[in-house]
Write a structure and sequence with these properties.
The structure is a homodimer of 404-residue chains.
Chain A: E1 3-8, H1 16-31, E2 35-40, H2 46-57, H3 63-87, E3 92-95, E4 102-104, E5 113-116, H4 119-126, E6 130-134, E7 137-139, E8 145-147, H5 152-163, E9 168-173, E10 194-196, H6 197-204, H7 213-222, E11 226-230, E12 238-241, E13 254-269, H8 275-285, E14 290-297, E15 303-310, H9 314-328, E16 332-345, H10 355-365, E17 372-376, E18 379-385, H11 389-399
Parallel strand pairs in A: 1-2, 1-9, 2-6, 3-6, 9-11, 10-12
Antiparallel strand pairs in A: 4-5, 7-8, 11-12, 13-15, 13-16, 14-15, 16-18, 17-18
Helix pairs in contact in A: 1-3, 2-3, 5-7, 6-7, 8-9, 10-11
Amino acid sequence: MALIVQKYGGTSVGDVDRIKNVARRIKKTREEGNGLVVVVSARSGVTNELIARAQAITERPDTRELDMLLAIGEQETIALTAMALQAIGVPAVSYTGAQAGILTDQVFTKAKIKQIVPKGILKDLKAGKIVIVAGFQGINEEGQITTLGRGGSDLTAIALAAAVQADKCEIYTDVDGVYTADPRIVKTAQKIDEISYDEMLELASLGSKVMQSRSVEFAKKYGVVFEVRSSFNHNPGTIVKEEVAYMEKVVVRGVAVDKDQAKVVISNLPDKPASAATIFNALAEASINVDMIVQNVAHTGGVDLTFTVQRDDAMSAVKVLPAVLKKLGGGEIKAYDNIAKLSVVGVGMRTHAGVAAALFTALGDKGINIQLIGTSEIKITLAVDRAKADEAVRAAHEAFGLSK
Amino acid sequence: MALIVQKYGGTSVGDVDRIKNVARRIKKTREEGNGLVVVVSARSGVTNELIARAQAITERPDTRELDMLLAIGEQETIALTAMALQAIGVPAVSYTGAQAGILTDQVFTKAKIKQIVPKGILKDLKAGKIVIVAGFQGINEEGQITTLGRGGSDLTAIALAAAVQADKCEIYTDVDGVYTADPRIVKTAQKIDEISYDEMLELASLGSKVMQSRSVEFAKKYGVVFEVRSSFNHNPGTIVKEEVAYMEKVVVRGVAVDKDQAKVVISNLPDKPASAATIFNALAEASINVDMIVQNVAHTGGVDLTFTVQRDDAMSAVKVLPAVLKKLGGGEIKAYDNIAKLSVVGVGMRTHAGVAAALFTALGDKGINIQLIGTSEIKITLAVDRAKADEAVRAAHEAFGLSK
């Protein structure tokens, strides 16, 4: 008998009928001879409703009380899911995060899992029951309810899979898996059968919204193999696992794009050793995350510094910087909010040369101007004009033969 | 500094504005120099919504899972109430039943409180915080969430008042207190300032819907003095406490009426020793509660047996009885579902003679026929025609001078 952890997201348990559908899927997996721990999210929309109710009370609700409030979303789903299973003759029992022994740190609304003590779960599994666990929540040392922040239910599933030493971990969502590109942009995009943690991490952090990076990082750290697949059909999904040799045969695994980027250019910055550090410290203090950075000495004798930020942060950056530049003794600011970030990702890049050249050629052939370039061992990232982003994704997808 | 336990019911916390209103009341009590533990119910309507959702999944939801589901109603209110207090500058912290240390037995949906271990609560009170506790819920020995059944939040408040040795316990509701009669029936009905546990118990069990008997019984057992009052004004309410000598000066404390009664008459029952026992055992097995019972030997040589039941149970009684009568060898059944039960209650009856006579006279003067009579030490109960019930209540109220 295999032990499987399944996780169903908010759309998969969005209403009573969908919960019944999930119960039938679980029953089927059980009838194939498996033991199951099932993690469920709140019904889609519920968490936002609860936040709205809190904000009708006070603009800035206390985070401890917010976690107390938000935890009820998943508590509803676990009870209803357990009932739906019992109604079709499957023994099931629900667990809150606290009952499941999911111990976290003290940071409300974005707690980290410190340890899982799945004593009760293992006992109920042994008794032949399906165990339904509330995602997204845990309990701290003082017995207070905490929540894990965005993507928290995925994290619950992966951490539980590690804790109960599951044979498989299946993350059910509303897409079929991870694709070589966004199928809305590239019609010939292919579902990826297997992908390494590192590739998944790069795609997750680059606008492929399938999963949050922290869940993938956790899976990588504890060696949890998981599959991302759809709860609305029975197609196989994408398996995410440790890199194996044959993965390197593929040069590029996928192409990701993030269209919500802005570019800030500071020109004629005085050429002092601490200039860049002063600027990025000021931005960090204002909680502005800087992504790509390029610096070069300008022909005027000063320095040109260019960086990208999330589009939402561009205005804040423009507000923070003048005071800094004044202190440094010069420099002009220009911001452009029409930037997209395109990335090609693949562990094969480590062993294949000429990937950058092929990418530049493909974009050049289409007359797409490259504004900034960044690279890592398994990724090349380019900033391009947002209006050209879709065309650039299609060109890159084509250039690396991802349409099969 | 006095320590006060306050309980606010579902209508008092029915929406965001009412929760803010409750927060202001709590703040006022605190500013008068008091420490507070506040018990809140689910917003009115929420529990029924949750039950409806469960029944959309399965007709007969498992009781463990139902408790897991229902507990979220109060968990929402505690978080919102704590937020509302913090928003007006009052330090507050919410507790689920489990966190409050409310330990119950294993009977889901109608658990009994076994013990309260208020360690965390006492610590937070000492730190100057208002402690907000979810009513209606607790935790059993296995760490599973239980609920306490109807009137559960009142019970939570009274049990907590005993556990933290509160100086006062205030039950806030949508009425001003306990009245000498239902003000909708008797316009001159008066609010009762003080009432003994026993009187309150008789009234609670007799259609005065202010509180469930079990909460009053718990208060009596542990000597918790409590006040029933309105959360919508600042009028003093009704104080419920141990009987004291001066209470006996009043002969009748109040008049209660229950209009949902039915009468079953079995005539010509064979006069055997076990006849009545056989009948009432059969009714008990069918979960039918019998209230008033009268038996007398009929002129025909058989026995006439008359009893009252809740109106809903009359049909079941009529279904169950024929088989029993057949076994006993005779008897005819007639049922009347147009019965009301009128009770006058007062500890003064113990020392005052002639109460029954005065009551019969008052009703007789109005031409109201008395169908059955039952008495206890502090109560006289009469069954009358439902159509005459209101008139009977007014006559009794008048006869004992309750309009002042």
